[in-house]
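Input record (one chain):
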Amino acid sequence: MTAVSEIGSRADTKRVADLRERVRSAMERPAVEWECPARIDERFMSEPLAVRKARAIALKLSQMPTDLWEGQLFAGSMTLEEPRVHAEWGFPDYTTEEEREAAAERGLSIHNVFGHIVPDYRSLLSKGLRGIRADAEAQRGKAEGDEEEAFLDSVLVAVDGVVNHAERLAARCEREAGSESDLTRAAELREMAANLRQVPAGPAQTFWQALQSVWLLHMIFHATMNGNAMGRLDQYVWPYLKSDLESGRLDLERAAELVDCFCLKFNERAETGEGQQPEAREPEHVDPSRRTRHYTSSQIGMHRDSIDATNHWLQNIVIGGLTPEGADGTNPLAFLLLESFRRNKMTNPLLAARLHKGSPQELLDAVCEVLKDGGGMPALFNDEALIPGLERLGIPSPAAREYTNDGCWEVIIPGRTDFVFQRLSLMLCLEWALNRGRSRVDGSQQGPDTGDARAFGSFEEVWQAFLVQLAAMVERVVKAVVERINDRSTIAPVPLLSALVDGCIEKRRDMTAGGSRFRTFGMLGESAAHAIDSLVAIREVVFEEREATMGELCDALDVNFEGHELLRARLLAVPKYGNDDPQADEVGREVMGAFADLVGRRAAEHEAVVKFPCGVGTFSWYIGIGEGLGASPDGRRAGEPVSSNFSPALGRDMEGIPAAILSYGKMYHERLPGGAPLDLRLGRQLVNGEEGTRRMAALIRSFVETGGSIMTLTVADAEELRAAQREPENYKSLRVRMGGWCAYFTMLSREQQEHHIRRQGGR
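The corresponding structure, as predicted from the sequence alone:
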């Protein structure tokens, strides 16, 4: 490992330095929309819908630009450099009017492609698309009925469309080589053409080809409405790099340049223009009666968060972790990817590091050095918690050890999983329990009437009302999922993705129709810290210390604590989750245990169809989530943001980061295999120099050993963030963690900026 760790001391190649600067410059220029074909040819409209969808994929790929970024070593771009044409937008229609109307009645359209999947890139590299195509052809004799025949046909059409696009790119490389005066660059272009004629049609033979094959499929998925992640790139690409290094086909310096060029490709479509700057934002009209996620989340308003997420496309790469056999999988490619992320100082690709008790110290140190640069990447995933949780869910051990994330942080098995999720607000359930099932924001009846909370005579009555509300919410979600689980397949099948998801070809069934090996629906608890703290406050202030009645508490909540400052101060003073307090943490365990129990009981009867892993998450929507909640018994005022993911409530973790990690580690993570991130902040002064690296590495070790599932660490100072607000032009590379991804701080809404400053300890 020593030679690899020293790669950080190398100088950038001229190519990489130039490309990095040009990519940054291009981000600031507005993109021009590419004119996508509107519709597939009418002669195909008599074919089955799945085949027509594949025709639409092939049509778009046949027309997409093949221009190359000058000097790049990888072909295939959604966004060109000059002119800055952007070809991600648009997709040819392939449906009839009757199909569209029928889908609309169920709230669906051709755009209901969820993404959030990791394709089976290992099979892509070992078999190539022609090998996968042969697998589909071999199933023809087993097809039962028109639907299975149509699925196999759709795979063939989609795969052929990709191979043809690769041929178009190869031809473009050859044309440019013919007119290139620089002999070295001409040779590179010819090798790029040769790579594209080998992959993705055939198996990868070299490291360069492996990266080209994976990049091209990733780009094509995103260009055809399927925003998918990369998964464990260091695991499935390392054998090709290892072979090249051992044979002398390339050295580590050349490998590093290839990795740098590869990582820069993910940023070609990034935007940091005037439209993303906070002063250019139009105020959002927030309608409290319009919530997201079928009224199971308290989030209201989407416009601000959508703009904040402009540069988030689920482009996550995972490094490290155990192999399917249970050995440590750390390899040199992980270090090359970390170093590339550190040098580029961009938001893509996202990085996550899988760790376990046996992870080498050299990997932890390298992770820390990248984290110290800011941005909250890589996110840290704990094999010691997540693998047992997945096994408990019924995932076989070798597959569980292969877990990755879906592009944000939700845990899935790569290349084998159809995944969707929904957020269920724990705090909203408690609000309903204390208000007869009604919202305190708009008064609408959203949950069952569990009685007048003013008359509750014990904490047990509060708890039972909360459980009734939570059970009703879980019931509603599970019922809707099971009833509609295959609906997407009727209007938005995914034939190309299905070709790269294990089980689909064997079953002769699209992923959206149940073809994948595993099918999971994440049940993610929202605003968990506030629900925990609120229940602790009710138990102590109302029923143990008798310092207020339930009527007085409800009155205070009704008026957002106006005139009830003493009661609010008392509610704020009780023990809070995140301080390693036994009382608060025990309530936290009860809440998470009850959530997992309710989901488990309701989901058990559907286990053969879909699994329902639990987790906790807000993603980057903690401001909108708070806007949809009234005042809460933990002392939080109406409309204030909630804490991110499973982090302690803002300003309530008074005992420091180690205490927050200890509290978090107690929260039944073996029952939260969907993931439940703890998002923490570190001041730069705490991690300076080698001593700071050792301190941070020890903190990460404690996270692994205490049993938490996912942790993120953002290094920044409040003063630095304030300076970035004043002088944004001097802080263009400053990045912050956004719940599941990272963003350029100066491109965030003013509300988000202020929230990050407060989280960092500023005022």
